[in-house]
Task: structure prediction
Amino acid sequence: MHCKKSVKIVNKMVGDGYPTYIIAEIGINHNGSLDIAKKLIDAAALSGCDAVKFQKRTIDVVYTKEELTRPRENPFGSTNGDLKRGLEFGYNEHVEIDRYCKEKGIDWFASCWDNASVDFIEQFNPPCYKIASASMTDDNLLRHHRKYKKPIMLSTGMADIQLIDHAVEVLGRDNLIILHCTSTYPSMTEELNLKGILTLKEKYTDVPIGYSGHEVGLPTSLAAHVLGACVIERHITLGRSMWGSDQSASLEPPGLMRLTRDVRAIESAMGDGIIKIYDSEAPIMTKLRRVSWQHSGAE
Result:
């Protein structure tokens, strides 16, 4: 089962009849280290992912002064502001990320949480943008993304169908991909509501539907793929016990490799739906079937 409409991301089509676009979200799991970020890019490229995704914020715009001064012990200091600034890559780091991803032959883009961050990332000519679930009610931010006429992935955590309808109305359906999502880290299996993928496919027949997962393990992400998700996004980490709020909801490199392997195996196994006798079955037929039957030629 596949999406009914396709969107072009660089030289890849995402949607009906095309290979699943697999995204390894690095997010903030680099913990402010470019070296860790590169190792995560390596893991994604080695696994055969199509893209890695980061997050970008203008700290003083996204967070209030009160939030930034709130006490919070962390590796970068004693306040929430120390943490947020410590996790934020600047221009030089993004230049190196851009260079390194090109060297590894993997797409990269970001979830931008404010207008200035969109403008910042645009200088690297990303193949698309992702609207984080937390940002889907920010109409101004949604419209600002559209200024650059890039494909957009809309994540739908913390939303009902009315909120999704509104975001789609603001963004428009052209060059849009909707990602079914539950925004808990990690998500409980019983709250993944994978049948929501079918609901979205039925409602938005002209928009590709994907899945952004925050659960533990692989089976539910594979089930999302079988239900028709043409994009699969999972957070990745070098170790689920590392410091950081998103690490426990992430896949380690061996898990990411199994995910991409199994998605590709399912794609191959789906076939074309035409019931037929394979050439490889012929010797088995001869050996095991006691009575042969010839087609009459009549339909």
